[in-house]
Amino acid sequence: MTRTVIITGGTSGIGKATALYFAKNGYKVVVTSRNPNKEAEILEDFEKEEATVTFYELDVTKEELVKEVINKTVAKFGKLDSIVNNSGISLGNAILGETESDELKQMLETNVMGVYYGMKHAINAMLKTGGGTIVNLASIAGINGLYATALYNASKHAVVGLTKGASLDYATQGIRVNAVAPGAIKTDILKNAIESGTYDVSAIEALHPINRLGEVEDIAKAIYFLASEENSFMTGTILSVDGGYNAR
Q1: Which of 48, 67, 76 is nearest to 125 (CA)?
Q2: Which of 47, 88, 90, 124 is the most buried (most CB within 10 A)?
Q3: Is pLDDT at 192 greater than 80 in this prediction?
Q4: 3-class DSSP assignment, residue 239
Q5: Does the annotation count 245 as an active-site position?
Q6: By residue range, what is the domain housing residue 222?
Q7: The CATH number of the domain where 23 resides is what?
Q8: Active-site residue, selected from the candidate residues 21, 116, 117, 152
């Protein structure tokens, strides 16, 4: 039976790699972005891989829009089997006293409220059709404290809390809720930060015992595992895919 997945922020980086991986494994894939200009690009990327995708414009900070996208997905495909709450932002790389309060507000709106809206409305849809799976994007910053990153730390710790709490709420109702916690991954955002001199690639690599950055495909495969029926006995898990970072 064909299965359906929504991936928020699915037009670049980890989101796009995840979307392509689900498509290659037979899923009907819906990706979202708040930038409508991304639609033509993602359709072309999928066509190159001989896969299909549905695109919906979505700002995850708007609850009614999140609900609308989930409802449209169910109307089009009959049900929602999985949602990957991938949309997130990182602002204010500074020690706490030198940060801007508005940067925390923005990250909470996207990284926490956006995840909450996706979980809430996906759960309500899944309960009507026999269950499903949710995978949230946490981070090593959701498990540890990182220097000059307290605001981002706070938002990702909240994602961990939402994941664990909801997993208990629905453990006997056919809905599994997990999260993946990536280490430093080769995304365009990180690449740009390195090129601008914000981060030094060798220093970041050295934080990981494997001594390299992760690839977006590493995270995509972990997300697929958590969401798929290949994994039926994990819920409330925060899966670290971090090159050994948390083994220290």
Answers
A1: 67
A2: 88
A3: no
A4: strand
A5: no
A6: 4-183+216-240
A7: 3.40.50.720
A8: 152
